């Protein structure tokens, strides 16, 4: 089956468009994912190496489903597509030895039971009570999604800077990382390491459900 079989506008326009970037604005259930699937199929039919296509979706289940749908079209290379979430991509990149040496962070997600020792230690550094500490950790993790600046961040006041320094110091010592740090740290690494192979790894970046990405995730996609 060819990529454009029984394909009509507007899906045909999305799949056939050769410019960059392309952002498709449409409501739920209007066929955006279907058009993206056919766009990927066109690239493969035209000889694009599947390893040069980075297919980003919002959930791992959606990633697997999209690859399956492309594979069902029986187009060569469909089974070799790289489809993932930005969290999975960031985690994989941050695990590389060279990246660890640069970021000085260990990409081991903090386990649930480790949160209590973290809160206990921060409390004894006069950083507030348990409730306040939990609130500050949540604010720290969500700041990159909430703030709309070119360089998203959390610490604004001296107290916030002190809290962030103590929190990150604890996480470094225990070789761990908050889930909310994955993408910000990956973004910071790519932004300040322009020669990184990860900035040149993919020729085609295709994002499904782009509207669900937060500020940091959008910048991470656009930083190539």
TrEMBL record:
ATP binds at residues 26-33. It comes from Candidatus Methanophagaceae archaeon ANME-1 ERB6. Keywords: ATP-binding, DNA-binding, Helicase, Hydrolase, Nucleotide-binding. PANTHER family: ATP-DEPENDENT DNA HELICASE SRS2 (PTHR11070:SF2), UVRD / RECB / PCRA DNA HELICASE FAMILY MEMBER (PTHR11070). SUPFAM superfamilies: P-loop containing nucleoside triphosphate hydrolases. It comes from the Archaea. One of its GO terms (biological process) is recombinational repair. Pfam families: UvrD-helicase. This is ATP-dependent DNA helicase Rep. Residues 5-224 form the UvrD-like helicase ATP-binding domain. Its EC number is 3.6.4.12. InterPro entries: DExx_box_DNA_helicase_dom_sf, DNA_helicase_UvrD/REP, P-loop_NTPase, UvrD-like_ATP-bd. GO terms for molecular function: 3'-5' DNA helicase activity; ATP binding; DNA binding; hydrolase activity. PROSITE patterns: UVRD_HELICASE_ATP_BIND.
